[in-house]
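Re: How this chain folds, sequence and tokenised backbone to follow

Filed under: protein folding, tokenised backbone structure, sequence and structure records.

Contents: The amino acid chain and a row of whole-number tokens, matched residue for residue.

Body of memo: The sequence and its backbone structure tokens, given next.
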Amino acid sequence: MSYSSRLLEDSVEALSNLPGIGKKSALRLALHLIKQDKESAQNDLIRPIQTMVNNIKFCVTCHNLSDREECTICTNRTIKAEQICVVESVRDVMAIEETGQYKGLYHVLGGVISPLDGIAPEDLNVDTLIQRAESDQIKEVIMAVSPTIEGETTIYYLSKKLNQSDVKISLLARGISFGGELEYADELTLGRSIATRTPYSISEL
């Protein structure tokens, strides 16, 4: 595509680097911004994004996104503090929260164990999960990890690590198809999978 402005071309290139945004969509967004007055563009889009990039944090307890040291879920005293739902990513937390079926704590691993991709257990938020599970307050750890080969490997590894602590380990019910990504499951299926979760035992493997 030919551009009459290098500034426009650079903006389109930057926007197209965002997930799910192609060159045509990036061009539409850039042209939309050009139509806005400068103050509106700054206040409504650019400034909020700059503020987010500069100030957003990862919760020191569960590794979810947060504005403060601890996220609003970890500091919410009305939830079930004896349950931890283990997920791969922040997007999985959002997906489960949308179902309204879970009222406990979370723990974001930051991925799954994948030797082919060079991701080892020490690259994930495993140690902090074990520390939390060893707390007297925690009674159940729910493995809400996508049912892929890497996900199953991660569940097995975590279950072995948690085997020494006195916590119940549960799996999501298999409403989620094997090989599927948790964040793309519909709310009804995901909600039922949480509500009908099943116990997990290493001896069953």
